[in-house]
Amino acid sequence: MKQMVASLQESMPIRRPVMMLILMGLGLLAVTVVSLGMGGAKINLADVIHHMGHRIGIWPTGIDDFNARILDSLRLPRIVRAIVIGAGLGLAGAVMQSLFRNPIADPGIIGVSASAALGAVAMIVAGHLVLGSYYAVVGPYGVPVAAFAGAVVATALVRILSRQDGHTDAAIMLLIGVAINAIAFAGVGVFTYMADDAQLRSLTFWQMGALSGNGPADAPALIIMALGAAYLVSLGTSLNLFLLGEAEARHLGVEVENLKRRATVVTALVVGAAVAVSGIIGFVGLVAPHLVRLVTGPDNRYVLPASAICGAAILTGADAVARIIVLPAELPIGLVTGIVGGPFFLCLLLREKKRRRI
Amino acid sequence: MSLTAQNISFMARGRYLLRDVSLSLNPGEVLAVLGPNGAGKSTLLKVLAGEYSPVHGAVLQNGRDIASVPAISLAGERAVMPQATSMTFPFPVRDVVALGRSPFRKISSRQLDNALVTRAIKLADIEQLADRAYPALSGGEKQRVHLARALVQVWGMTEANPQTVPEDEAIRSNGSAHGRFLLLDEPTSGLDVSHQHALLSVARREARQNGVGVLMILHDFNQVTAYADRVAVLQSGELVAQGMVTDVMTPDLLSTVFKSPIRAIPDPVGGAVLVSQAQEPV
Questions:
Q1: Could you give the CA distance from residue A46 to residue A50 in angstroms, rounded to a whole number?
Q2: Residue A358: its chain B contacts at CB < 8 A?
Q3: What is the end-to-end Cα distance of chain A in Å, rounded?
Q4: Closest to B165 (Cα-Cα) out of B201, B206, B104, B110
Q5: What residues have CB less than 8 Å from A330, skipping those under 6 apart?
Q6: pLDDT digits (tens, 9 = 90+) for A104-142
Q7: Which residues of A touch B96 (CB under 8 A)?
Q8: Per-residue pLDDT tens over the stretch A311-355
Q9: How far apart are CA A99 and CA B123, in angstroms?
Q10: What is the 8-class DSSP label of residue B89?
Q11: What are phi and psi of B174, to 5 degrees?
Q12: CA neighbours closer than 13 Å in the CB half-sphere of residue A184
């Protein structure tokens, strides 16, 4: 791998981080192709590539109809969701870590994900009571919209409560987020207690995460995520300055309060939309940026796009695992990322601890 | 054109930290700010840098009220070297210095940025640290990194080699257009003696040769007399004296402000040194 990078660098005058981005993009493509082939019905790699080639018009003939339909209507939408959600979560984590100038910040930790889940759970359990006869009208959009509202309300609360004399202190903001997180989880607990059996099944979906999706009702959320992610990637240079400290960023020409407002609101939109589609999927926002920094260094101009790619690859890979590990059933994807991500996070912390002692 | 504080007051939690302070920092001069702990020196610097907004009065940078000027255009004319900054992400030192070029990212070229960064790294004597990770440095080393970062920012788009520009001309050419300012918050606090003098010389050279207005908070009387042109003395948030170093730095005034007996002793090499007398143990 290293040799390959070195030889590529010699032949092309591209900077190392850019090269890394290209390689990671190729890696994501590879994970996607492999993941398309995996699942209850095994489709071999050649067929997957053949089918994709046929769809973009390289080959005139496609593969057999049954497999083609599995790929088109089952696996592809799912993987598109995994890619968009993974990219959104990875990016949201990277942005939050810079915004709070704290490498352990993550939408899951400051309560945005939990509040989104609270919104969703409240809608599932109490939605028919509050909305009455409108509940049927709102239909499949009710739960995603509630999740989304939860994320936005949580972010607004964190921002309002941490504001003093026109400034927001990033450290206080992080702690207030932790408190909001606790409150939101308590709320989820209350609704879980109130729920009946049928509702409990949907609730577990929100708490453990799943990529099975809600069909076309997901489309608006996915579009919001993609647009939000594109905006967040553009904040690289400003967030680099932000890492120096808020005062220093201002001295270097960043409109600090403005940046904080935009970045937190867009992050909330992305995370809220992600939870609306898939429930809580933890650790992607934490692990993806950390993995990326090992390769590209801390420069946000590369960390942000790379975190998006890496998050997408992680979630696509985790989804493949979730689909095949307990066949014919499938594991909630939040469990997979939790089982792998938790210990991984612990290793990162221990490594950090060792490094700081030196 | 200058950086001017007009009757500024600053209040936090019902207490005045600054009361009716007026001063002005002119291109080409070194202004030292002196005062006991808690006198409001850092607060004054933060108000001048636009970090805090005064409750009364205004700060004008090159004639414009900084409250109504975008941060990016202030940053093009003024750099700040902070007291201490914590950064947990392992940026290499060279990249931290290069962040000082970001206000000019739209108009500068990579060659110019690299040349300026290399020159600043040399001036701040951090060449041997350039590839190290910033968080692993000691306090004094970090301060030198921030000096270099502030230098590449205050240099702006001046491409000419400053050594070749005659002193007067540099001051005149800058004074007529936009004055540039360098604010240093206790720049010598973490440095050893030789690096303290190196930093102060760099600051003075910026003033003399590049026409930069330099304001620095200092504690050492003799550094003030050796490196500053003018001095402002703060006490309990009020400006008690302001003027040429020779007029202000008198044992009487300093003894009153610092509540400690201070004497001027003739230096065999010429001039006088200010010494504070050890107090009797209580």
A1: 6
A2: 136
A3: 30
A4: B206
A5: A322, A323
A6: 778 877 788 889 889 888 888 887 777 767 766 666 677
A7: 244
A8: 999 999 999 888 888 877 788 888 888 888 888 878 877 876 776
A9: 32
A10: S
A11: -80, -40
A12: 31
